[in-house]
């Protein structure tokens, strides 16, 4: 009996809100509703008691260092003179933004070094002063083992069990930023998908471009004038192929498709197979997720980013099936990053404001196919402005922390729209546990779910006992 209450509750809700009848009927409905609430709460308590984890608080250990709330006082200088034109050139001009977002998008901001620290502060695994070894510094330039800034934006990490190695795939954006036309978004020509390998999640070796752009074939999906975003790779045990899914588009984002590529090796080269509109729908920001039972899913922003679609892939992971559900309908979310903890599915998403940062939301579900429920902003610490802008970044992936129960690494991109190749990585600890903040749609105000928390840290490292820090 896997939490039938959510479904039950949502049906009740539908019936209840759908009836436009007399006061009499309303009163009776309401009384029935109250009785139901009581029943649900009784069942809930039994459930919780049986499971021995009251209110779904997880049994994970406490990670004192990671869960320390770290304040970061940030003073925004008073506006003086004219802002650079780029400050107002986000994709959604009319949307009201937070002052920090204007400051962030202003190339001439006096506090730009706070958002984009100078290269001399780079995290350099090959030349790190002993004390900073294995520390993540969110927002600083991060160098690979050859001393070059890592190019793996909008990325994801695959743990390859066969080699015991992590592979980080992402957009290789080391080219000039320009606008294809006056109203177009800032872009970099497609170069390809970058791949980096690591045993410890800190020191990354460049494995090269594993899926390269086409220089000359203008009709090809991978022509440099097109768009390739958010590549993600999973391994198929049956076919023994590494399968990459990505967002494929034209410069105006009208193609709105997914692309699929495969390789026999994690380090490629990947063979590009095709692009398509999954389930016949437009598909922009996307991710794939491989569940414990080997079934993989694709999730993508659709219907002009107003809703997310989710559906299982075929057994070979090369296509979608006919099964699809619409989730977070009308919520306008993108950049989904999925993960699973103690049998429950979680997800972090962003709003849709182009390259400009916005507020992250956490979502939770018993089944990956939904219903999904929004449980609020997961960002903790830093300052209010950081919390309202996902630490000036956008979600891309959530990776389980090796050997740590209930602890994850939240991976996000701090986009630099005036120079996209200089976009930074914001990696922070994410923990699941504790009750959520507010009353929720499907739970009638009962805190049925665990909280998802992403803690700001100026610097942090994986806890001792992670396979990575034992090296
Ligand atoms: C490392 O830490 C020690 C003790 O905290 C300190 O004395 C030393 O100056 C630090 N070294 C560097 C290179 O930061
Ligand atoms: C260019 O790409 C298209 C679409 O993938 C393909 O059909 C065509 O054969 C390619 N042309 C050349 C010359 O490779
Ligand atoms: C994109 O839109 C612009 C302006 O609306 C148009 O001039 C251009 O041809 C379009 N490009 C593509 C690749 O569709
Ligand atoms: C998305 O927007 C386009 C252009 O505004 C419109 O033609 C199309 O019908 C919309 N699609 C959906 C599914 O809402």
Tell me what you see in this structure.
It is a single chain. The protein is mainly beta and 471 residues long. It has two domains: 5-52; 85-455, 5 Propeller (Tachylectin-2, Chain A), CATH 2.115.10.20. It is 13% helix and 32% strand. The protein has five helices and 23 strands. The protein has a five-stranded mixed β-sheet with strand order 19-23-22-21-20. Strands 1-2-5-6 form a four-stranded antiparallel β-sheet, with no helix packed on it. The longest helix has 29 residues, at 23-51. The chain is globular and about 50 Å long. The model is unreliable at 1-21, 41-55 and 87-94 (pLDDT under 50). The chain binds 2-acetamido-2-deoxy-beta-D-glucopyranose (NAG) (4 copies). One 2-acetamido-2-deoxy-beta-D-glucopyranose binds next to loops. One 2-acetamido-2-deoxy-beta-D-glucopyranose is lined by residues 303-304.
Index terms:
Tachylectin-2, Chain A, 2 domains, four-stranded antiparallel sheet, 32% strand, membrane
Distance between the termini: 43 Å
Radius of gyration: 23 Å
Overall tally of domains: 2
Topology pattern, helix = H, strand = E: HHHHEEEEEEEEEEEEEEEEEEEHEEEE
Strands across the major sheet, in which order? 19-23-22-21-20
Cofactors and ligands: 2-acetamido-2-deoxy-beta-D-glucopyranose
Keywords: Glycosidase, Hydrolase, Membrane, Transmembrane, Transmembrane helix
Pfam family, one: Glyco_hydro_43
Transmembrane segments: 21-40
InterPro entries: Glyco_hydro_43 (IPR006710), Glyco_hydro_beta-prop_sf (IPR023296)
């Amino acid at each position: 009996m896997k939490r039938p209450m959510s479904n039950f509750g949502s049906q009740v809700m539908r019936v209840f809100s759908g009836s436009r009848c007399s006061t009499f009927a309303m009163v009776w409905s309401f009384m029935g509703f109250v009785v139901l609430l009581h029943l649900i709460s009784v069942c809930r308590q039994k459930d919780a008691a049986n499971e021995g984890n009251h209110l779904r608080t997880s049994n994970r250990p406490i990670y004192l260092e990671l869960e320390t709330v770290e304040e970061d006082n940030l003073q925004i200088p008073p506006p003086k003179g004219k802002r650079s034109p780029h400050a107002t050139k986000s994709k959604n001009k009319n949307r009201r933004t937070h002052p920090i977002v204007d400051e962030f998008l202003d190339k001439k901001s006096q506090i730009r070094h706070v958002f984009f620290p100078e290269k001399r502060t780079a995290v350099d695994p090959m030349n790190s002063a002993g004390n900073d070894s294995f520390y993540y510094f969110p927002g600083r330039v991060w160098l690979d083992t050859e001393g070059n800034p890592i190019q793996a934006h909008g990325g994801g990490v695959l743990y390859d069990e066969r080699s015991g190695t992590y592979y980080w795939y992402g957009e290789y954006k080391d080219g000039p930023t320009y606008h294809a036309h006056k109203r177009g978004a800032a872009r970099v020509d497609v170069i390809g998908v970058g791949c980096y390998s690591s045993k410890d999640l800190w020191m990354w070796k460049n494995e090269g471009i594993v899926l390269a752009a086409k220089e000359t074939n203008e009709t090809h999906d991978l022509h440099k004038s097109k768009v390739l975003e958010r590549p993600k790779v999973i391994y198929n045990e049956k076919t023994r192929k590494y399968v990459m899914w990505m967002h494929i588009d034209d410069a105006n984002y009208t193609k709105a498709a997914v692309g699929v590529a495969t390789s026999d090796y994690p380090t490629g080269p990947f063979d590009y197979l095709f692009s398509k509109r999954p389930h016949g729908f437009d598909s922009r920001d996307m991710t794939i997720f491989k569940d414990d039972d080997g079934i993989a899913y694709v999730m993508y922003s659709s219907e002009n980013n107003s809703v997310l679609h989710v559906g299982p892939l075929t057994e070979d992971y090369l296509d979608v099936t006919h099964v699809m559900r619409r989730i977070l309908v009308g919520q306008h979310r993108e950049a989904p990053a999925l993960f699973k903890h103690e049998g429950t599915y979680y997800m972090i998403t962003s709003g849709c404001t182009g390259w400009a940062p916005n507020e992250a939301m956490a979502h939770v579900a018993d089944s990956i196919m939904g219903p999904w429920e929004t449980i609020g902003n997961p960002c903790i610490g830093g300052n209010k402005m950081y919390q309202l802008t996902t630490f000036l970044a956008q979600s891309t992936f959530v990776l389980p922390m090796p050997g740590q129960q209930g602890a994850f690494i939240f991976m996000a991109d701090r986009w630099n729209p005036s120079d996209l190749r200089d976009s930074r990585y914001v990696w922070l600890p994410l923990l699941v546990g504790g009750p959520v903040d507010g009353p929720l749609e499907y739970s009638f105000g009962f805190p049925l779910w665990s909280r998802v928390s992403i803690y700001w840290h100026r610097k942090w490292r994986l806890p001792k006992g992670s396979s990575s820090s034992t090296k």
